[in-house]
Specification:
Layout: H1 9-26, H2 28-44, H3 73-97, H4 105-121, E1 133-135, H5 141-151, H6 156-160, H7 193-210, E2 221-226, H8 233-236, H9 239-244, E3 250-256, H10 271-281, E4 285-289, H11 296-301, H12 306-313, H13 316-323, H14 327-333, H15 339-344, H16 350-355, H17 363-375, E5 381-386, H18 411-420, H19 443-454, H20 478-481, H21 492-505, E6 513-517, H22 528-533, E7 535-536, E8 556-557, E9 563-564, H23 569-580, H24 582-585, E10 591-597, H25 602-614, E11 620-624, H26 643-647, E12 653-656, H27 661-677, E13 683-687, H28 703-708, E14 710-714, E15 723-729, H29 733-748, E16 750-757, H30 760-776, H31 786-791, E17 798-801, H32 806-810, E18 820-823, H33 834-840, H34 845-858, H35 864-873
Parallel strand pairs: 1-2, 2-3, 3-5, 4-5, 6-9, 6-10, 7-8, 10-11, 11-13, 12-13, 15-16, 15-17, 17-18
Antiparallel strand pairs: 14-16
Helix pairs in contact: 1-2, 3-4, 3-5, 3-19, 4-5, 4-17, 7-23, 21-27, 23-25, 29-34, 34-35
The structure holds thiamine diphosphate (TPP) and magnesium ion.
Magnesium ion binds at residues 226-228, 257, 259-260, 265, 389.
Length: 886
């Protein structure tokens, strides 16, 4: 907002003098109060004063209010310079012989931001402190490795194996707990996920605390991110939740180096001002760290505000350009705009002007910002630190548009880098780009050790397990293992809610259960849990709920157990991730169950689900109202026929599509055992449906095969001279398979063995691993996969039908002996009754019957005329359009 020109400077000065006197005599807070009153008065009197969420383009913390670092700045500078060099060296060395990539410029701009944290702020978990959690910006990883190397945590061999992991002892390109489980905690390199997950992590810490499960007081979440990264909707999408929930345990540090990959972030504007407005408007505490200490004397001289004006009017594209040039250029193009400013710097050399530093490179300014952030209460804090991308790279990339991708530096640039940071590397060695180490008896090494000791020890480490939980036996779910009985029809979603009810009441693990919903509790029939468990709220319930007089009223509670995330799948998933990694970050295993509309699961938040695998999450995801034809009325955007296919792409996600209540009970009980007793790093995706039907009693001895993915549900009549087929069904479509078996028997004298396939995904994984073993062990007796074991002695062609795309059942084709036909629901969903949808998508009992007859005819057992007759009899139009593309 541009103000009018000053029409009466004398009057202005009187007001400013009055304000000065208040600040000096009564303090800044009083001045703030008076200004607020003046603004309010002006507004009430009719003046138009638009709201402005931004402040001048200067540091938020005035020089006089900066808390001084107690550290030894000379030593810290040397350590930081070593880290800078080594971070650059590892990338250059890795790319000499291989072409594995890596980034220099990002960490070069962020080195001070990390260094001040390591030396003064970030606690490792120890007796007196639960430990801070730091989300490192993904492609700044070389700097983290370089620090850990200097500290003595990583070896030179590991550094030389940067991005070369397959031989072991390598370092992953970015933070990946899957690849470095003792080192990295948070996968952040998919931009936007770090900020989002950090917010929910901070909130989950408060949840654990208020439920009395962990003491998280004093622990902070620090999340580092790039200014370009802030364009991801995920980065800013949850910031209002952070302020609404008063997450004063959360600190964002946005490294505003003004550049992203291709060029400037806001060449024509100012990213720091834009972010200041967004965060302040959302209710955050904003600390801008724009200018370094060398600017302080100039700003002190700027009594007329002309320097500030110039600072404000200059756009980021220019600021970037200045730092790719030199002092003379800055004099001419920055100060040169106004003669008074040129005068201001007249007695400074070009080198002096070049030395005018940016806030994010000034350890004093960074320290002051961090010190202020950790003390701030009632709000989350964002630190907007202005830096230079590729700082120190000189002509090889500093502040240049190409810098992000630069992985090579010539001798001249290396020498300039060395000289700039005062490193002692002889000229003849420079081209080797040797790693710099600290002698164990050096002051720097001792300083690093002392600093970390004072902050609880080695910073980069990750816990891989916590105390095992005592898991209820399958008999705890006895009511689900019995037949539901005629007239007691229910859905697998209802079965799930019953299981959840049993679990929350369990004496051993009940408190560890975290039910998570994204505003769909009523959809899944879980509203009874509101009253019983309470919805967690940091402030309790400040109102009388509308349904207070009802048994199952909407109860919010400080000690509530349910996380009701609103219409926010990404946020709910982030909460789930925080809970699912609680064993590692908080030393207590939590058991999250996130139930969501399956269509808005993997498809919507697939990248978080992938990160959850990387992060070694343990927990349950429930895709509710699943199945393309089972969710009948909701149509194209809701009917999911592919979430299992996406789930199968995540290596440690175990997925099931159960049909009956007892299958669900067996799967969840075993999941609990694997994840919380054995502490396997897997997570579960289970689809549950909303179709009501009666559930049979669990056949004897099928538990193991339910878990393997396939078991014999019903064996057809054994008769040598009759025809036979093998029918495979999954989820609700198993019931169509059962009906088809009856038709086949009744009308065509075909006997069918019926198999319930709880997971085609698990079947394929197991079969592939058997095939692999057989290939690598040709001299040993071949093993058989579970699919082969089930079907090898069975007679007749095999027909499978599911409520998912055909490729779901198709994936075991290689292991099915003989002829194999699959039916599935390829295509866009649409609204109608289940019956009509199943007919439309060609997965109902009649199509299964026709598919079986066709398979038998190809084996020469049934005449084509019989199939033609069947098609006609079931009202199938052979010329109808293919539903997969209609
Ligand atoms: C979701 C996603 N999209 C794209 C990328 C590729 N990428 C890696 S770094 C980068 C630029 C980052 O710029 P910025 O956030 O400003 O970080 P800086 O390197 O400048 O610190 C991009 C586009 C990614 N990692 N994640
Ligand atoms: Mg950037």
């Amino acid at each position: 907002m541009d103000l009018q020109p000053d029409i009466d400077p004398q009057e202005t000065q009187e007001w400013l003098d009055a304000l000065d006197s208040v600040i000096v005599n009564e303090g800044g807070e009083r001045a703030h109060f008076l200004l607020e009153r003046l603004i309010e008065k002006a507004r009430r009197s009719g003046a138009y004063l638009p709201y402005s969420a931004t402040t001048a383009y200067i540091n938020t913390i005035p020089t006089g209010k900066e808390e001084r670092s107690p550290g030894n700045n000379a030593i810290e500078h040397r350590i930081r310079s070593y880290v800078r060099w080594n971070a650059m060296a590892m990338v250059l060395r890795a790319n000499r012989n291989t072409n594995v990539g890596g980034h220099i410029a990002s960490f070069a701009s962020a080195a001070t931001l990390y260094d001040v944290g390591y030396n003064h702020f970030w606690h490792a978990p120890c007796e007196s402190h639960g430990g801070d959690l730091v989300y490192i910006q993904g492609h700044s990883s070389p700097g983290v490795y370089a620090y850990a190397f200097l500290f003595g945590q990583l070896s030179q061999e590991q550094l030389d194996n940067f991005r070369q992991e397959t031989g072991g002892n390598g370092l992953s390109s970015y933070p990946h707990p899957w690849l470095m489980p003792n080192f990295w905690k948070f996968p952040t390199v998919s931009m936007g996920l770090g900020p989002l997950m950090a917010i929910y992590q901070a909130r989950f810490m408060k949840y654990l605390d208020s439920r009395g499960l962990a003491h998280t007081d004093g622990r902070k979440i620090w999340a580092f991110m790039g200014d370009g990264e802030m364009d991801e909707p995920e980065s800013l999408g949850a910031i209002s939740l952070a302020s609404r929930e008063n997450l004063d345990n959360l600190i964002f540090v946005v490294n505003c180096n003004l550049q992203r990959l291709d060029g400037p972030v806001r060449g024509n504007g100012k990213i720091i001002q834009e972010l200041e407005g967004a965060f302040r408007g959302a209710g955050w505490n904003v600390i801008k760290v724009i200018w370094g200490s060398y600017w302080d004397p100039l700003l002190a001289k700027d009594t007329k505000g002309l320097l500030q004006k110039r600072m404000m009017e200059c756009v980021d594209g220019e600021y970037q350009n200045f730092k790719a040039r030199d002092g003379a250029y800055v004099r001419e193009h920055f100060f040169g705009k106004y003669p008074e400013l040129l005068e201001m710097v007249a007695n400074m050399s070009d080198d002096d002007i070049w030395r005018l530093n940016r806030g994010g490179h000034d350890p004093y300014k960074v320290y002051a910002a961090y010190a202020s952030a950790v003390k701030h209460t009632g709000q989350p804090t964002v630190i907007l630190a202005k830096t230079i991308k590729g700082y120190g790279m000189g002509e090889a990339g500093e502040a240049q548009n190409i810098t992000h991708q630069q992985k090579k530096m010539g001798t001249t640039s290396l020498k300039a880098f060395r000289n700039r940071f005062g490193l002692e590397i002889p000229d003849e060695k420079i081209d080797e780009v040797p790693y710099l180490t600290l002698a164990e008896d050096s002051a720097e090494f001792a300083y690093m050790q002392e600093r970390r000791k004072a902050l609880g020890g080695t910073f980069h480490s990750r816990k891989t397990s916590a105390q095992a939980l005592q898991i209820p036996p399958l008999s705890a779910f006895e009511s689900l293992l019995k037949a539901s009985g005629e007239g007691h029809e229910s859905s697998t979603t209802m079965a799930f809610v019953r299981i959840l009810n049993i679990l929350v009441k369990d004496k051993q693990i009940g408190q560890h259960i975290v039910p998570i919903v994204a505003d769909e509790s009523r959809t899944f029939g879980m509203e009874g849990m509101f009253r019983q468990l309470g919805i967690w709220s940091s402030v309790g319930q400040l109102y009388t709920p509308q349904d207070a007089d009802q048994l199952m009223y909407y109860k919010e509670d400080k000690h509530g157990q349910i996380l009701q995330e609103g219409i926010n799948e990404a946020g709910a998933m982030s909460s789930w991730i925080a809970a699912a990694t609680s064993y590692s970050t908080h030393g207590i295993q939590m058991i999250p169950f996130f139930i969501f509309y399956s269509m808005f699961g993997f498809q919507r938040i697939g990248d978080l689900a992938w990160a959850a695998g990387d992060m070694r999450c343990r927990g349950f995801l429930l895709g509710g109202t699943a199945g393309r034809t089972t969710l009948n009325g909701e149509g194209l955007q809701h009917e999911d026929g592919h979430s299992h296919i996406v789930a199968s792409t995540i290596p440690n996600c175990v997925s099931y599509d159960p049909a009956f209540a007892y299958e669900l009970a067996v799967i969840i009980q075993d999941g609990l055992r694997r994840m919380y007793l054995e502490q396997e790093d897997v997570y579960y995706y289970i689809t549950v449906m909303n179709e009501n039907y009666s559930h049979p009693k669990m056949p004897n001895g099928v538990e193991k095969n339910i878990l393997k993915g396939m078991y014999l549900f019903n064996e057809g009549n054994k008769s040598n001279n009759e025809l036979r087929v093998q029918l495979l069904g999954a989820g609700t479509i198993l019931r169509e398979v059962i009906a088809a078996a009856e038709i086949l028997k009744r009308e065509y004298n075909v006997n069918a063995d019926i198999w319930s396939v709880t997971s085609f995904n698990e079947l394929r994984r197991e079969a592939l691993s058997v095939t692999r073993w057989n290939m690598l062990h040709p001299d040993q007796p071949a093993k058989l996969s579970h699919v082969e074991n089930c079907l090898k002695e069975r007679e007749g062609p095999v027909v499978a039908a599911t409520d998912y795309m055909k490729i779901y059942a198709d994936q075991i084709r290689e292991f099915v002996p003989g002829k194999y036909r699959v039916l599935g629901t390829d295509g866009f969903g649409r609204s109608d009754t289940r019956e009509k949808l199943r007919h439309f998508f060609e997965v109902d009992r009649f199509y299964i019957t026709v598919a079986a007859l066709k398979a038998l005819s190809e084996n020469g057992k049934i005449s084509n005329q019989q199939i033609v007759n069947a098609i006609e009899k079931y009202g199938i139009d052979p010329e109808r359009p293919n539903p997969a593309i209609s």
